[in-house]
Amino acid sequence: MNARTRTLIAAALVLGMASGPVVAHAAPGPAAASASAASGGGAAPAVSSPPDAAALTKAIAGLGAEHKDATAALVRVGGSSGSWQGSSGVADVRTGRRALEQGRFRAGSVTKTFTAAVVLQLAAEGTVDLNRPVQEYLPGTFPDSFAPITVRELLNHTSGIQAADGPGDFEAQWEHRFDVTDPREQLANALAKGPEFEPGTAQHYLNISYTVLGVLIEKVTGASYEASVTRRILEPLGLRGTSFPGRTRTRIPGPYNHGYQAVPRPDGSTELRDASVWNSSDRWAAGDIISTTADLERFTVALFSGRIVPEAQLEEMFTVPEVKDFVSGKDASLTAGLSRIVLPDGTVAWGKTGSRHGYNTVMGATRDLSRTLVYSLNSTNAKGQEMNPVALGIIMAAFAK
Fold this sequence. Notes:
The chain contains 14 helices and 14 strands. The chain has 401 residues and is of the alpha+beta class. The strands form four sheets. Strands 1, 2, 3, 4, 11, 12, 13 and 14 form an eight-stranded antiparallel sheet that branches. A two-stranded antiparallel ribbon has the order 5-9. It has a two-stranded parallel sheet with strand order 6-10.
Protein backbone atom coordinates (compact mmCIF):
# COMPACT_ATOMS: atom_id res chain seq x y z
CA MET A 1 0.00 0.00 0.00
CA ASN A 2 1.14 3.56 -0.67
CA ALA A 3 1.88 6.26 1.90
CA ARG A 4 -1.58 7.83 1.57
CA THR A 5 -3.24 4.49 2.27
CA ARG A 6 -1.07 3.99 5.35
CA THR A 7 -1.98 7.45 6.61
CA LEU A 8 -5.71 6.88 6.13
CA ILE A 9 -5.68 3.60 8.02
CA ALA A 10 -3.58 5.02 10.83
CA ALA A 11 -5.80 8.07 11.19
CA ALA A 12 -8.93 5.95 11.37
CA LEU A 13 -7.51 3.70 14.06
CA VAL A 14 -5.91 6.44 16.15
CA LEU A 15 -9.36 7.98 16.44
CA GLY A 16 -10.61 4.73 17.92
CA MET A 17 -6.52 3.79 19.58
CA ALA A 18 16.81 -10.31 20.93
CA SER A 19 13.87 -11.99 19.21
CA GLY A 20 13.21 -15.64 18.56
CA PRO A 21 11.93 -16.70 15.16
CA VAL A 22 8.37 -15.96 14.15
CA VAL A 23 5.94 -18.75 15.02
CA ALA A 24 3.16 -18.93 12.46
CA HIS A 25 0.31 -21.24 11.53
CA ALA A 26 -1.87 -20.88 8.46
CA ALA A 27 -4.92 -22.76 7.29
CA PRO A 28 -7.48 -22.42 4.54
CA GLY A 29 -10.06 -22.36 7.33
CA PRO A 30 -13.74 -23.29 7.26
CA ALA A 31 -16.34 -20.56 7.26
CA ALA A 32 -16.85 -18.92 10.62
CA ALA A 33 -19.76 -20.65 12.34
CA SER A 34 -22.23 -17.82 11.95
CA ALA A 35 -20.73 -15.81 9.09
CA SER A 36 -23.58 -16.58 6.73
CA ALA A 37 -26.20 -15.52 9.26
CA ALA A 38 -24.30 -12.36 10.12
CA SER A 39 -23.97 -11.35 6.46
CA GLY A 40 -27.62 -11.95 5.68
CA GLY A 41 -27.29 -15.14 3.67
CA GLY A 42 -25.97 -15.18 0.13
CA ALA A 43 -24.31 -11.74 -0.06
CA ALA A 44 -20.75 -11.71 -1.34
CA PRO A 45 -18.24 -11.77 1.53
CA ALA A 46 -16.52 -8.47 2.40
CA VAL A 47 -13.17 -10.30 2.22
CA SER A 48 -12.98 -13.42 0.06
CA SER A 49 -9.22 -13.95 -0.22
CA PRO A 50 -7.33 -16.00 2.37
CA PRO A 51 -4.98 -14.20 4.78
CA ASP A 52 -1.63 -13.24 3.26
CA ALA A 53 0.66 -15.39 5.41
CA ALA A 54 3.86 -13.93 3.96
CA ALA A 55 2.77 -10.35 4.62
CA LEU A 56 1.60 -11.17 8.15
CA THR A 57 4.85 -12.98 8.94
CA LYS A 58 6.84 -10.03 7.66
CA ALA A 59 4.73 -7.56 9.67
CA ILE A 60 5.76 -9.08 13.01
CA ALA A 61 9.29 -10.22 12.20
CA GLY A 62 12.28 -9.13 14.26
CA LEU A 63 10.55 -7.95 17.43
CA GLY A 64 12.41 -8.00 20.73
CA ALA A 65 14.52 -5.98 23.15
CA GLU A 66 16.39 -4.17 20.37
CA HIS A 67 13.32 -3.28 18.31
CA LYS A 68 12.38 0.38 18.81
CA ASP A 69 8.61 -0.10 18.55
CA ALA A 70 7.64 -3.44 20.10
CA THR A 71 9.06 -6.34 22.07
CA ALA A 72 6.43 -8.94 21.11
CA ALA A 73 3.28 -9.55 19.09
CA LEU A 74 0.49 -12.12 19.13
CA VAL A 75 -1.81 -12.20 16.09
CA ARG A 76 -4.90 -14.18 15.09
CA VAL A 77 -6.59 -13.65 11.73
CA GLY A 78 -9.74 -15.63 11.04
CA GLY A 79 -13.14 -15.71 9.38
CA SER A 80 -14.85 -17.53 6.56
CA SER A 81 -12.02 -16.72 4.14
CA GLY A 82 -9.33 -18.53 6.12
CA SER A 83 -7.19 -18.25 9.22
CA TRP A 84 -3.64 -17.48 10.32
CA GLN A 85 -1.90 -17.31 13.69
CA GLY A 86 1.52 -15.99 14.53
CA SER A 87 3.74 -14.67 17.29
CA SER A 88 7.09 -12.96 17.46
CA GLY A 89 9.44 -11.38 19.97
CA VAL A 90 10.21 -12.09 23.60
CA ALA A 91 8.21 -12.65 26.75
CA ASP A 92 10.93 -11.03 28.88
CA VAL A 93 13.72 -8.78 27.59
CA ARG A 94 16.01 -9.84 30.45
CA THR A 95 15.99 -13.53 29.60
CA GLY A 96 15.19 -13.38 25.88
CA ARG A 97 12.57 -16.09 26.37
CA ARG A 98 10.37 -16.46 23.30
CA ALA A 99 6.96 -14.76 23.38
CA LEU A 100 4.14 -16.93 24.71
CA GLU A 101 1.60 -17.44 21.94
CA GLN A 102 -1.18 -18.02 24.48
CA GLY A 103 0.07 -15.33 26.87
CA ARG A 104 -2.34 -13.01 28.63
CA PHE A 105 -2.23 -9.23 28.33
CA ARG A 106 -3.92 -6.04 29.42
CA ALA A 107 -6.47 -5.24 26.70
CA GLY A 108 -7.32 -1.72 27.86
CA SER A 109 -10.39 -0.15 26.27
CA VAL A 110 -11.50 -3.42 24.70
CA THR A 111 -13.19 -3.58 28.11
CA LYS A 112 -15.74 -1.10 26.79
CA THR A 113 -17.11 -3.65 24.32
CA PHE A 114 -17.80 -6.07 27.17
CA THR A 115 -19.39 -3.30 29.23
CA ALA A 116 -21.59 -2.22 26.33
CA ALA A 117 -22.64 -5.83 25.70
CA VAL A 118 -23.84 -6.23 29.30
CA VAL A 119 -25.81 -2.96 29.17
CA LEU A 120 -27.41 -4.02 25.88
CA GLN A 121 -28.32 -7.40 27.40
CA LEU A 122 -30.01 -5.54 30.26
CA ALA A 123 -31.86 -3.43 27.68
CA ALA A 124 -33.05 -6.57 25.91
CA GLU A 125 -34.32 -7.90 29.25
CA GLY A 126 -36.22 -4.67 29.97
CA THR A 127 -34.10 -3.84 33.00
CA VAL A 128 -32.54 -0.79 31.33
CA ASP A 129 -34.17 1.62 28.87
CA LEU A 130 -31.62 3.11 26.49
CA ASN A 131 -33.80 6.23 26.09
CA ARG A 132 -34.15 6.82 29.82
CA PRO A 133 -31.90 9.38 31.57
CA VAL A 134 -29.17 7.79 33.65
CA GLN A 135 -30.04 10.32 36.38
CA GLU A 136 -33.22 8.32 37.01
CA TYR A 137 -31.19 5.17 37.62
CA LEU A 138 -28.58 6.90 39.77
CA PRO A 139 -30.51 9.57 41.71
CA GLY A 140 -28.42 12.10 43.57
CA THR A 141 -25.30 11.37 41.52
CA PHE A 142 -25.47 14.17 38.93
CA PRO A 143 -25.50 17.90 39.76
CA ASP A 144 -28.42 19.97 38.48
CA SER A 145 -26.08 21.58 35.93
CA PHE A 146 -26.41 18.44 33.79
CA ALA A 147 -29.28 18.03 31.36
CA PRO A 148 -30.79 14.53 31.19
CA ILE A 149 -28.24 12.06 29.71
CA THR A 150 -29.69 8.89 28.22
CA VAL A 151 -28.08 5.50 28.62
CA ARG A 152 -27.60 5.43 24.83
CA GLU A 153 -25.61 8.68 25.01
CA LEU A 154 -23.30 7.09 27.56
CA LEU A 155 -22.82 4.09 25.30
CA ASN A 156 -21.97 6.07 22.15
CA HIS A 157 -19.78 8.71 23.83
CA THR A 158 -22.17 11.64 23.32
CA SER A 159 -22.88 12.23 27.04
CA GLY A 160 -20.94 15.49 27.38
CA ILE A 161 -19.38 14.41 30.70
CA GLN A 162 -15.85 15.70 31.15
CA ALA A 163 -12.89 13.49 32.05
CA ALA A 164 -11.90 12.95 35.65
CA ASP A 165 -8.52 14.25 36.80
CA GLY A 166 -5.55 11.89 36.45
CA PRO A 167 -1.88 11.86 37.46
CA GLY A 168 -0.50 13.20 34.15
CA ASP A 169 2.44 11.93 32.08
CA PHE A 170 4.05 8.50 32.26
CA GLU A 171 6.44 9.37 35.09
CA ALA A 172 3.58 10.72 37.20
CA GLN A 173 1.50 7.64 36.41
CA TRP A 174 4.46 5.43 37.28
CA GLU A 175 4.71 7.02 40.72
CA HIS A 176 1.00 6.32 41.27
CA ARG A 177 0.84 2.91 39.58
CA PHE A 178 -0.25 1.13 42.77
CA ASP A 179 -2.91 3.66 43.75
CA VAL A 180 -6.43 2.30 44.26
CA THR A 181 -9.15 4.39 42.63
CA ASP A 182 -12.79 4.35 43.71
CA PRO A 183 -14.93 4.74 40.56
CA ARG A 184 -17.58 6.68 42.43
CA GLU A 185 -15.03 9.18 43.67
CA GLN A 186 -13.69 9.43 40.12
CA LEU A 187 -17.22 10.08 38.88
CA ALA A 188 -17.78 12.78 41.50
CA ASN A 189 -14.57 14.49 40.42
CA ALA A 190 -15.66 14.53 36.78
CA LEU A 191 -19.22 15.67 37.42
CA ALA A 192 -18.05 18.55 39.62
CA LYS A 193 -16.61 20.15 36.47
CA GLY A 194 -20.01 20.48 34.83
CA PRO A 195 -20.92 19.38 31.30
CA GLU A 196 -18.56 19.74 28.35
CA PHE A 197 -21.41 20.02 25.82
CA GLU A 198 -25.13 19.37 25.57
CA PRO A 199 -25.81 15.61 25.59
CA GLY A 200 -26.27 14.11 22.14
CA THR A 201 -24.76 17.04 20.23
CA ALA A 202 -21.16 15.82 19.82
CA GLN A 203 -18.99 12.75 20.37
CA HIS A 204 -15.97 12.76 22.67
CA TYR A 205 -14.14 9.52 23.38
CA LEU A 206 -13.40 9.42 27.11
CA ASN A 207 -13.43 6.72 29.77
CA ILE A 208 -15.83 8.49 32.10
CA SER A 209 -19.10 7.50 30.38
CA TYR A 210 -18.16 3.85 30.79
CA THR A 211 -17.33 4.42 34.44
CA VAL A 212 -20.93 5.62 34.78
CA LEU A 213 -22.12 2.50 32.94
CA GLY A 214 -20.16 0.30 35.36
CA VAL A 215 -21.92 1.99 38.28
CA LEU A 216 -25.25 1.60 36.44
CA ILE A 217 -24.67 -2.13 35.95
CA GLU A 218 -23.98 -2.57 39.66
CA LYS A 219 -27.06 -0.55 40.62
CA VAL A 220 -29.56 -2.41 38.45
CA THR A 221 -28.14 -5.93 38.90
CA GLY A 222 -27.23 -5.77 42.59
CA ALA A 223 -23.94 -7.50 41.75
CA SER A 224 -20.44 -6.19 41.15
CA TYR A 225 -19.51 -5.11 37.65
CA GLU A 226 -16.93 -7.90 37.43
CA ALA A 227 -19.43 -10.55 38.56
CA SER A 228 -22.01 -9.39 36.01
CA VAL A 229 -19.60 -9.59 33.06
CA THR A 230 -18.28 -12.94 34.25
CA ARG A 231 -21.75 -14.48 34.63
CA ARG A 232 -23.18 -13.03 31.44
CA ILE A 233 -20.24 -13.31 29.02
CA LEU A 234 -17.07 -14.97 30.28
CA GLU A 235 -18.63 -18.14 31.69
CA PRO A 236 -21.15 -18.81 28.87
CA LEU A 237 -18.42 -18.41 26.23
CA GLY A 238 -15.77 -20.30 28.20
CA LEU A 239 -13.35 -17.34 28.18
CA ARG A 240 -11.05 -18.85 30.80
CA GLY A 241 -8.10 -16.62 29.96
CA THR A 242 -10.12 -13.44 30.50
CA SER A 243 -10.45 -11.74 33.87
CA PHE A 244 -10.77 -8.46 35.69
CA PRO A 245 -8.16 -7.46 38.27
CA GLY A 246 -10.65 -5.63 40.45
CA ARG A 247 -9.52 -2.76 42.66
CA THR A 248 -6.50 -4.29 44.34
CA ARG A 249 -4.79 -6.88 42.10
CA THR A 250 -1.77 -5.53 40.25
CA ARG A 251 -0.36 -8.64 38.52
CA ILE A 252 -1.53 -10.39 35.38
CA PRO A 253 -2.73 -13.87 36.38
CA GLY A 254 -1.21 -16.81 34.54
CA PRO A 255 1.49 -16.73 31.84
CA TYR A 256 2.04 -13.41 30.08
CA ASN A 257 4.44 -11.43 27.93
CA HIS A 258 5.91 -8.50 29.85
CA GLY A 259 4.94 -5.04 28.64
CA TYR A 260 7.53 -2.24 28.54
CA GLN A 261 7.52 1.52 28.22
CA ALA A 262 10.52 3.17 26.55
CA VAL A 263 11.72 5.92 28.90
CA PRO A 264 14.52 8.35 27.91
CA ARG A 265 17.52 8.60 30.23
CA PRO A 266 19.43 11.84 30.89
CA ASP A 267 22.36 10.59 28.79
CA GLY A 268 20.14 10.21 25.73
CA SER A 269 19.81 6.43 25.89
CA THR A 270 16.51 4.64 26.45
CA GLU A 271 15.36 2.41 29.30
CA LEU A 272 12.72 -0.28 28.79
CA ARG A 273 10.75 -0.05 32.01
CA ASP A 274 8.58 -3.06 32.87
CA ALA A 275 4.99 -1.80 33.15
CA SER A 276 3.35 -5.21 33.53
CA VAL A 277 2.56 -4.86 37.25
CA TRP A 278 0.06 -2.03 37.63
CA ASN A 279 -3.18 -1.17 39.38
CA SER A 280 -5.83 -0.50 36.74
CA SER A 281 -8.69 0.48 39.02
CA ASP A 282 -8.70 3.97 37.50
CA ARG A 283 -9.84 2.37 34.22
CA TRP A 284 -12.30 -0.18 35.70
CA ALA A 285 -15.35 -0.72 33.43
CA ALA A 286 -13.66 1.38 30.74
CA GLY A 287 -10.31 -0.38 30.49
CA ASP A 288 -9.04 -2.93 33.01
CA ILE A 289 -9.76 -6.28 31.30
CA ILE A 290 -7.06 -8.95 30.91
CA SER A 291 -7.45 -11.47 28.10
CA THR A 292 -5.88 -13.62 25.36
CA THR A 293 -6.07 -13.43 21.58
CA ALA A 294 -7.99 -16.72 21.45
CA ASP A 295 -10.59 -15.45 23.92
CA LEU A 296 -11.04 -12.14 22.12
CA GLU A 297 -11.44 -13.93 18.80
CA ARG A 298 -14.13 -16.16 20.28
CA PHE A 299 -15.84 -13.14 21.83
CA THR A 300 -15.76 -11.23 18.53
CA VAL A 301 -17.34 -14.08 16.56
CA ALA A 302 -20.02 -14.68 19.22
CA LEU A 303 -20.81 -10.97 19.47
CA PHE A 304 -21.11 -10.31 15.74
CA SER A 305 -23.16 -13.50 15.36
CA GLY A 306 -25.81 -12.28 17.80
CA ARG A 307 -25.05 -14.91 20.43
CA ILE A 308 -24.27 -12.38 23.17
CA VAL A 309 -26.56 -9.45 22.43
CA PRO A 310 -29.94 -9.99 20.72
CA GLU A 311 -30.22 -8.66 17.17
CA ALA A 312 -32.37 -5.62 17.97
CA GLN A 313 -29.96 -4.35 20.61
CA LEU A 314 -26.86 -5.48 18.69
CA GLU A 315 -27.73 -2.91 16.03
CA GLU A 316 -26.65 -0.22 18.54
CA MET A 317 -23.09 -1.50 18.12
CA PHE A 318 -23.26 -0.87 14.36
CA THR A 319 -24.95 2.54 14.52
CA VAL A 320 -22.80 5.67 14.46
CA PRO A 321 -24.56 8.79 15.81
CA GLU A 322 -24.95 11.61 13.29
CA VAL A 323 -22.82 14.14 15.16
CA LYS A 324 -19.30 15.52 14.88
CA ASP A 325 -16.28 14.52 16.90
CA PHE A 326 -15.82 17.11 19.66
CA VAL A 327 -12.05 17.36 19.18
CA SER A 328 -11.50 17.01 15.42
CA GLY A 329 -14.80 18.28 14.05
CA LYS A 330 -14.97 15.29 11.71
CA ASP A 331 -17.91 12.91 11.44
CA ALA A 332 -18.29 10.62 14.44
CA SER A 333 -17.03 7.05 14.07
CA LEU A 334 -17.79 5.44 17.44
CA THR A 335 -20.81 3.35 18.37
CA ALA A 336 -21.97 1.56 21.50
CA GLY A 337 -18.73 -0.27 22.29
CA LEU A 338 -17.23 -0.38 18.79
CA SER A 339 -15.77 1.86 16.10
CA ARG A 340 -16.49 1.98 12.37
CA ILE A 341 -13.45 2.02 10.10
CA VAL A 342 -13.65 2.36 6.32
CA LEU A 343 -10.47 1.05 4.69
CA PRO A 344 -9.15 2.75 1.55
CA ASP A 345 -10.51 -0.03 -0.69
CA GLY A 346 -14.00 0.54 0.75
CA THR A 347 -14.02 -2.44 3.12
CA VAL A 348 -15.87 -1.58 6.34
CA ALA A 349 -14.53 -3.05 9.56
CA TRP A 350 -15.90 -2.75 13.08
CA GLY A 351 -13.82 -3.19 16.21
CA LYS A 352 -12.20 -1.81 19.31
CA THR A 353 -8.70 -0.76 20.19
CA GLY A 354 -7.21 -0.78 23.68
CA SER A 355 -3.97 0.40 25.23
CA ARG A 356 -2.27 0.16 28.58
CA HIS A 357 1.40 0.93 29.13
CA GLY A 358 3.27 -1.92 27.44
CA TYR A 359 0.24 -3.27 25.57
CA ASN A 360 -1.74 -2.35 22.43
CA THR A 361 -4.74 -4.50 21.53
CA VAL A 362 -7.18 -4.70 18.62
CA MET A 363 -10.24 -6.89 18.16
CA GLY A 364 -12.50 -6.50 15.17
CA ALA A 365 -14.03 -7.90 12.01
CA THR A 366 -16.06 -7.25 8.94
CA ARG A 367 -19.69 -7.49 9.94
CA ASP A 368 -20.18 -10.68 7.93
CA LEU A 369 -17.20 -12.28 9.75
CA SER A 370 -15.43 -13.05 6.51
CA ARG A 371 -12.33 -11.52 8.14
CA THR A 372 -11.58 -11.19 11.86
CA LEU A 373 -8.47 -9.78 13.49
CA VAL A 374 -7.19 -9.86 17.05
CA TYR A 375 -3.72 -8.85 18.12
CA SER A 376 -1.78 -7.96 21.21
CA LEU A 377 1.30 -5.87 20.58
CA ASN A 378 3.82 -5.20 23.34
CA SER A 379 4.39 -1.64 22.21
CA THR A 380 7.20 0.38 23.78
CA ASN A 381 5.01 3.51 23.61
CA ALA A 382 1.50 2.13 23.85
CA LYS A 383 -0.13 5.41 24.84
CA GLY A 384 1.61 7.49 22.18
CA GLN A 385 -0.34 9.78 19.85
CA GLU A 386 1.01 8.16 16.70
CA MET A 387 -0.02 4.66 15.66
CA ASN A 388 2.64 2.02 16.21
CA PRO A 389 4.11 1.11 12.77
CA VAL A 390 4.13 -2.60 13.65
CA ALA A 391 0.40 -2.42 14.43
CA LEU A 392 -0.25 -0.65 11.16
CA GLY A 393 1.66 -3.33 9.29
CA ILE A 394 -0.43 -6.06 10.96
CA ILE A 395 -3.70 -4.39 10.02
CA MET A 396 -2.67 -3.77 6.41
CA ALA A 397 -1.57 -7.37 6.04
CA ALA A 398 -4.66 -8.77 7.75
CA PHE A 399 -7.12 -6.96 5.48
CA ALA A 400 -5.11 -7.17 2.27
CA LYS A 401 -7.06 -8.52 -0.71
